Structure formats: structure tokens, C-alpha cells
Amino acid sequence: MNQSLPLSGFRIGVTAARKADEQVALLERRGASVAWAPALSLDPNRIDDERLRVATDDVLTRPVDVFVATTGIGMRSWFDAAERWGVLPDLLTALGSADILARGPKSVGALRRRGLRELWAPESECFEDVLEHLRGRPLEGCRIVVQEHGQSLSMVAHALRRQGADVTTVTVYRVEPAGDPEPVFELVDLVCDRALDAVTFTSAPAVAALMEAAGSTGRRDELVGAFQADVVASCVGPVTAAAFEMWGVPSIHPARSRLAAMVKQLEVELPSRRSGLVVELVGGHQLLLHGDDVLLDGSPVRLTPAPAAVLNALVANPGNVVSRPALLSMLPSGTAGSEHAVEMAVARLRAALGTRAVQTVVKRGYRLAVVSPS
Description:
This protein has helices at residues 20-29, 49-59, 72-85, 88-96, 105-113, 127-135, 154-162, 182-192, 204-216, 220-229, 238-245, 259-275, 305-316, 324-330, 339-353; strands spanning 11-14, 33-36, 40-46, 66-69, 99-102, 143-147, 166-170, 174-177, 198-201, 232-235, 251-252, 277-280, 286-290, 293-296, 299-300, 322-323, 358-361, 365-368. By secondary structure, the chain is an alpha/beta fold. It has a five-stranded parallel beta sheet, sandwiched between helices. A hairpin with a 2-residue loop joins strand 13 (286-290) and strand 14. Helix 2 packs across helix 3, helix 3 packs across helix 4 and helix 13 crosses helix 15. The longest helix has 17 residues, at 259-275.
């Protein structure tokens, strides 16, 4: 084994089905050993042509006011299907007359290749931010067409209808679970047994599939506990990372939602966790975490379990917001089950590290005040 490689000695689980060979090769070239367990079908984006044709005809029946594009592969597949049916010009005309909101650069690219221009796309690439933008405008009587992103958006459509919108969802494809679930079950066991240093995720459905597999074997609580304490949940971007929030699992993701960037982040994250994590705080302070030991500017910091749990969650997401419900789920058993317990733990953490160490983000949660890399 070449010890000079950045991921030598680390074992990493990979849940991807698409581009799995590329990801495994990236990790192995950096010295990692890889356990591959596709959480989704190797042909995950299965298109029901008949259902898509019906939805397309429905879109073309009357004018569209707002169109929401959520995935690049979904848009490309829809346009290709419409071209086969001979209705692509009609579809492009219908969507081109609407205000187009795109979730991220891949959907933007698919639109522009067909001559369509987005009105707005969030820098975060988060679907929730697209919805927030949409809810900020009057929706009464507005016809909205939403391209689904592999999972049903029926609840989103219902919420928009409550605001008076006329909503049509277009199911281009459905994400299917892996045909052979055994590798996923084995991956669950590896995580629960702390036999992996990290697991990578490139889609929110992969997170859901792993949680479902863990639940079916009765090990979901163990899985969540392992991710909270020892195993890094590495996500390709914020959309995938958001799927972990409901489970109270801290995750990391790169600034740019790209496979190479995710692997590069692991090159830094995993060795730093093994040797002792150093975090540069605002104000020129340095925080060192090594096992259960915490040092601030070289001096030991004594933390009780609740503020220690909050610190671990914030350190796992340096500079990123961790919600109060997520922090609450990480507090030790026996802690009062309300967000007030989180506030008390944060207050004690600030008392130990300094009031500027933990920032409050109104209506969202808390984040560690770290120095941005130059």
C-alpha cells in the first residue's frame, strides 16, 4: 500500500449506481479501499413512455405560466421523448412562454441546449429554495408545471394548490431500488459495525434506500448512531445532504456539487479526523478535537455531554447551518426533548468556547463560526 496517497488506510462505502466505476476509480487511485453497494437500480431512471406522453399532452392543452425544471437527465429524457413523438416544437413553445425556474446547472444546461432560458436558478441548487422563490410570488390562478426529480412531488403540488395555483406534475422517470438488495444490507452492517470510515451518496433517493434497508433489518438506530459519531456521510451536494437532516445525521458536501469535489473533500476530511481535527475559528482562535479531547488555543475545554454533542454536529458541518431539530436528535438520551434543551446546550458551548464561536441563523439553526479558506 502506498502510504503517501491521501486516502491510504481508509475504507469507503459507495452507494451510487450511475457513474459508480468513475467514483470507485477516483477513490482507489487515492489509496482507499472501496465497498460498493448500489442503493438504487443500475438502470435507475426508468421512463414510462405511455404515462409521460399523457402528461405531455396535458401540458400542451393550455398555456403554462411557470415551469420548474429539477434535473438535467429528466429534462433531456423528456425532450428526447417529445422529439420521438413529433411534438417537441409544441413543447418548447409551451415551456418557452412560461417563467422558467431551474434547480441547478444541469437542468439549466438541458434547457439551454434546446433554446430555452431560465428566469431564475438558486446558487444553492436546492429544490427547497426554488419553492421558496415560487411561494414569494402571487400564485392565485397561476398554472405551474413541475418536472419531478425521480420521486413524487405530490405533497409539493398540494401545498402550491393551497395557495391557489393550478399545478401539473410531469413524471419523466422513477427511481427504482436496487434489484439485488444484499449488498445494501451488507453495507448497513459495515456502517453499524464501524467498519467503514465514510459512505458517499450522490442522490437523495440513495439516502432513503439505505435508511429503508436499515429499518427492515432493525438496525436503523444503530446506523444513525454510527453516522452521528464515527462514520462520515459524504454527499455530492446540498440536495443529497438535506435528505439526512430528517434523521439527525450530520453530513458533509463540497461547495460545488461535483463528484471530483466530493472525493477531494474526503482527502482532507478523513485524514484530519484520524489525526485530530483542527478548526480555525473567527477571532484567530484554533479548536483541536482528538477523540473526546477538546483544546481551544492549546488549553483543554471541559464539556458536558449535551454541549459536546452540539459541538460534534457543528464541527461535522463547519460553516454550515445545522437545524435545531437535527441538533435535538443528537443530544444524549435523558436530555429534555425540546428545542429549549438545544438552546441551553448552545449557551454552555458558547460559555466554553466564546460567544462568537457559535452563530445563530434566525429560523434555521446554528453554525460554527469558522474562518473561510482563502
